[in-house]
Amino acid sequence: EPEVTQTPSHQVTQMGQEVILRCVPISNHLYFYWYRQILGQKVEFLVSFYNNEISEKSEIFDDQFSVERPDGSNFTLKIRSTKLEDSAMYFCASRDWTADFGPQHFGDGTRLSIL
Amino acid sequence: AQSVSQHNHHVILSEAASLELGCNYSYGGTVNLFWYVQYPGQHLQLLLKYFSGDPLVKGIKGFEAEFIKSKFSFNLRKPSVQWSDTAEYFCAVNGKAAGNKLTFGGGTRVLVKP
After folding, report:
1. Which residue of A42, A62, A68, B23 has the fewest C-beta atoms within 10 A of its own C-beta?
2. Is the pLDDT confidence value at B94 over 70?
3. How far is it, in rounded angstroms, from Cα B78 to Cα B71?
4. Nearest CB to A45 within list B36, B52, B103
5. CB-neighbour burial class of residue A50 (10 A; exposed 0-12, middle 13-18, buried 19+)
6. Residues A45, A90: Cα–Cα separation, whole Å
7. Shortest CB distance from B99 goes to which of A42, A43, A50?
């Protein structure tokens, strides 16, 4: 079964540094998402992306965050200047266009630790 | 704004016991409902989903869930659990528009003792 893959599995970064989290969605999927889960808290929606543009973003997704689909296969989340509170598990998800609004498929996540 | 509540944070039970996890949602419109499971060290996997039709949906690994519209609930059940069902379970909802974000409940950690 095709999978969503995320790299790296664990990223440790100094506060203030830029970080890029990478995702390879399932190849025929059209909608892409980033979620995060701070330790002990709910999985929270960050952003959705369709047709090469952001379709929706949460209030968490401020100017420090950006997403890109640079080459038709990768989907990246960039945090420009990381803060301690950005430490979390970041999940990428993708879904296709189906008549019954198919479910989102998730990657294994990247654990981001900001020091 | 949509929200999802899961009543239990932790559940501990023995093998062969029955499991029911509660989920209530708040959303101003027609919804799709999902249960995801996360086994230790693994990614979120879809257990089952409800879009329309029969409110009793059956998923993988013997799980089922019932959508009760009047109660805004989508409870997950399994008649007889196994040790391998030890995992965290997440209820999620999105609106009936393509591309809509998922809103998750807080999750329920289930520990099945052998």
Report:
1. A62
2. yes
3. 20
4. B103
5. middle
6. 10
7. A50
The C-alpha of A12 sits at a distance from chain B's nearest C-alpha, in angstroms, of 18
CB pairs under 8 A between A and B: 56
Q: What does the pLDDT average to over A1-20?
A: 92
What is the band of B98 on the pLDDT scale with cuts at 50, 70, 90? low
Which one-letter DSSP state was computed for residue B106?
-
Q: Hey, what are B22's tokens?
A: 């509660």
Could you tell me if B3 and B101 are in contact, meaning their C-beta atoms sit under 8 angstroms apart?
no
Asked if residue B67 lies in contact with residue B92, where contact means CB atoms within 8 angstroms, the answer is: no
Phi and psi, residue A54, nearest 5°: -70, 130
pLDDT, tens digit, 9 for 90 and up, residues A74-113: 999 999 999 999 999 999 999 887 655 678 899 999 999 9
Chosen for mutation from A23, A37, A43, A55 (greatest number of chain B CBs closer than 10 Å) is A43
User: What pLDDT shows up at residue A25?
Assistant: 94
Q: What is the pLDDT of residues B14-54, one digit of tens each?
A: 999 999 999 999 987 788 899 999 998 888 899 999 988 99
Helix/strand/coil for B84: helix
CA distance readout (Å), A15 to A19, A80, B101: 10, 10, 29
